[in-house]
Amino acid sequence: MPPTGTPPRPPEQPNGNPRRAGNMLAAVFILSAVLFVSFFVFVLFTSGPRTIAYNQFLDLAEQGKIAKLTLTGGNKVTGEVRVPTDPALQDLNLTAGRFTTILPHIDNQDAFVRKIIERDLAEHREAIQKKEAKPVEVVTEEDQSQWVGPLVYGVLPIVVLVIFFVFLFPKMRDPMGGGFASSFVKSTARRVDKGMSRTTFNEVAGMDNAKRELVEVVEFLKNPDKFMRLGAQVPKGVLLVGPPGTGKTLLARAVAGEAGVPFYSINGSEFIQMFVGVGASRVRDLFRTAKETAPCVIFIDEIDAVGRMRGAGVGGGSDEREQTLNQILSEMDGFLPSESVIVVAATNRPDVLDAALLRPGRFDRHITVDRPTWQGRFDILKVHVRNKPLADDVDLQKIAKKAMGMSGAELRNLANEAAISAAREGKERIDNRDFDQAAERILLGAKREGTHTPEERRRTAYHEAGHALTAWLEPKADPLWKISILARGQAAGVTMYEPNEDRIDMSKSELFARLVTAMGGRAADRLVFGEMMAGAVGDIKQATRIARMMVTQYGMSDRLGPVAYRAGEEHVFLGKELHETRDFSDGTAKLIDEEVHRLVREAEVRAHELIAANRDKLELLTATLLEREEMDRDEVEKLLGSRPTVSPSAASPQ
How far is CA 563 from the centre of its chain? Predict the structure, then answer.
C-alpha cells in the first residue's frame, strides 16, 4: 500500500499510452523522411554526365566538337560538346551535352590532353576557321568526387539516424522533460520573482474597494497557517471583472508584490495553438512550475479567450480551446489545501465565461474593477504626475472632476499628453492649459486646420450656441463645460458638459433635459437659417438612443407602462449593444416607435421655444464664439449672467 496522503498510482492502461503511441508515429515519420532524403541525395550524386569510351572521346576531339574540358587529379575527364543537337552525336546519346571518360594511366594527363587539343587545332585549323569555332576551354579542378559523394549519401544519413535515436528519440517520449518538443508545449508565462522590481498597493490608486477584497489573499500568501489553523480556505481563484484600462493587471501584480511571492503572467490566447493538446500541455507545465515555487500567484489575462462556454462553437470534443479549458478546470480542482497557489484572472466579458469556471471551488471570488470616481481619478493623477513639474495654476481636483469616465490607463495618457504639449511649446512646467488641450485631444482628436469656409464657420457657431444656450437655460441639464467651433477629429465643433457623477439615478425630467440639450443645435439651425442642416446627425442619434432607453427599459411611457422590452442588450463594461431577437409583438414595436418619436419631437419643440424666447442671447453667444472660437463655463456666465434655477415656461414631459 502507498503511504498515507499519497495518491495511488493509476493502473497501466491495457491499450498503451496514447502520448507514447503518438511519439512512435512521429518517430516513424521522421525516420521515413530521413531515408527519403538519403535516397534523393544518392540519386543526385550517382546520376551525372554520360560515360563514353576513350576512342570516342578522341574522335570528338579530332572533329572539333568539344567546347570545354574539366581535368581532375584522377584519370577522369568531364567535357561539354558544342552542339548537343548535332545528328552525328545521336549514337553517343549526348542530348544533355555533357560526357565523361576515363583516360589511360599516363603520368602527365594534363599535357596529354592539351597535346590532343593542339593536334586538333593544327590538323583542322582551316575547317575551324571556316566554322568560326572557338578553342577548347580547359579547366583544372581538384578531384573531390571520390569522397564527397560517399560522405553525403553514405555516411551522413547514418550519422543523422544515430543522433536521432541516441539523443532525440528518448527525450521525445517525455515532452515535459526538456526534449525535442519541450519548447513547443512548455508554458510561455512570464515570471517576476520577488527580488525583481515589485508593484505594491501604494502604486494602485483609485481602487480601494478592490484592494480591500484582495487583502485576505495577500495575508494567506504571507501566513497560510493563520487560516488553516481555523479550517478556513482562501479562494483558489479570483476573477477581476471590469472594462479595459482600469488596472486589473496592475492589481494582480500588486497582490504578488505585497505578498513577496513569484508572479506568473500569461494571456489566455497564448494557450491556443493549431495542434490539439498543446494548450493543455502548457497549462500542465504552468501549474506544475507554480506548485514547485509555491506560494505564488498565477495571472491569466483575457481569460475569455480560452474560457468561453463549451459547446457553443464548431469542433466538438476535439476543439483545442475546449481541451485547454478542461485542463484548467482539472488543475484548479487538483489544488491541495496546503498549496499556496492563487489563480487571478481578468476579463471584460464575464457573460461569455463557462459556468464550470465560475462555480465555487474554482473562481470563488469575483471582484469588479470599475472606472474610478473623481476621488479615485484624483489619486491616480497624483501617481502619474509625481515625476512631472507642474505649474502653480494646475488644480488636479478640478481636472479629475472634468475627466469623468476615464480609466486609469486614460488618465495616464492624459498626464503624458499634457507633458508632450508643454514640451512642444518649450515650457519648463506643465500648466492647466496643457491639461485642457490634452483632454480635448483625447476626447475629440487633434485640431484640423483650414477646413471651414466663412459660411460653414458661421453655421457651426449658431449650432453650438444652440446646444450651449439650451443647456444653460434648462436647470436639470448637465452643467456646461466648454464650447468650441474648432474642427477636431470628425467634428466641426463641439459642446462639452460636466455631468454630476455622484448621482446614481436619473429622473424622467433630467433625461428629458438631455433630450432638449441634444436637439438645441438643430433648433437653432431651423430658427436662424429656416431649414434643417446635416450637421445634426450625431445629435439625432444620441437623442433617439436616450428616448428609446426611456421607453423600453426605464418604463417612462404611460402608454407602454412599467414593462421592459428587450430589442438589444447593452454590455455593462464595453458599452456596446448586443443585438438579439426582440421579445415583443409588432403592435408593441409600433407603440415603441410612436413613443420614441413623440419624446424626441417634444424635446425639439421645447428647445425651439427656449432659443426663440432668448434670441438675443443666441446672437450674443454666437458673435463671441466667432471672435474667440472657444469659451468655457466662466466666460459664458460672464456673458449671459447666472444660470436660472427654474426653467422659464418649463414643460413637463408626459
Answer: 40
Instruction: Count the neighbouring beta carbons within 10 Å of the beta carbon of residue 192.
Output: 19
Give the CB-side neighbour count of residue 312, counting CA atoms within 13 A.
10
Q: Whose CA is closest to 378, among 352, 408, 357, 350?
A: 408
Strand, coil or helix: 399: helix
Helix (H, G, I), strand (E, B) or coil at 572: coil
- Is the pLDDT reported for residue 119 higher than 80? no
Domains with residue ranges and CATH for the chain: 50-142 (3.30.720.210), 185-368 (3.40.50.300), 374-444 (1.10.8.60), 454-640 (1.20.58.760)
Sequence-distant (≥ 6) Cβ neighbours of residue 188 within 8 angstroms: 266, 270, 282
> Which of 94, 103, 37 is CA-nearest to residue 71?
103
- Rg of the chain over all Cα atoms, to the nearest angstrom: 41
Q: Is 213 a catalytic residue?
A: no
Helix (H, G, I), strand (E, B) or coil at 240: strand
Kindly state the DSSP code that residue 136 receives in the 8-state scheme: P
Does position 637 have pLDDT exceeding 80, yes or no?
yes
* Residue position matching grid coordinates 433635459: 513
Residues 651, 243: Cα–Cα separation, whole Å: 38
Q: Would you call 371 helix, strand, or coil by DSSP?
A: coil
Pick the catalytic residue: 302, 320, 410, 464? 464
Backbone torsions φ then ψ of 99, nearest 5 degrees = -150, 165
Lowest mean pLDDT among 71-80, 98-107, 149-158, 470-479: 149-158
pLDDT at 535 over 70: yes
Which residues partner with 191 through β-bridges?
264
Q: Is 316 left (phi over 0), alpha (psi -120 to 50) or beta?
A: left
CA distance linking residue 220 with residue 158, whole number of Å: 58
Sheet with 137-140, side-by-side order of all strands? 50-51, 98-102, 76-81, 66-71, 137-140
Closest CA to 164 of 156, 152, 175, 154: 156
The whole-angstrom separation of Cα 258 and Cα 194 is 10
DSSP for residue 170: H
Q: What is the mean pLDDT of the chain?
A: 75
Looking at the predicted structure, is the pLDDT value of residue 13 above 50? no
Task: Using pLDDT thresholds of 50, 70 and 90, give the confidence band for residue 550.
Answer: very high
Q: How far apart, in whole angstroms, are the C-alpha atoms of residue 220 and residue 381?
A: 31
pLDDT at residue 597 is higher than 70: yes
CA pseudo-torsion sign 638, 641, 644, 648: negative
Q: How many residues does the chain have?
A: 654
Helices (H) and strands (E) in the chain, counts: 25, 16
Whole-number pLDDT of residue 444: 72
Beta bridge partners of 300: 266, 345
Segment (H or E) for 99:
strand 98-102
Cβ–Cβ under 8 Å, residues 222 and 259: yes
Cβ neighbours for 196, distance < 8 A, ≥ 6 positions apart: none
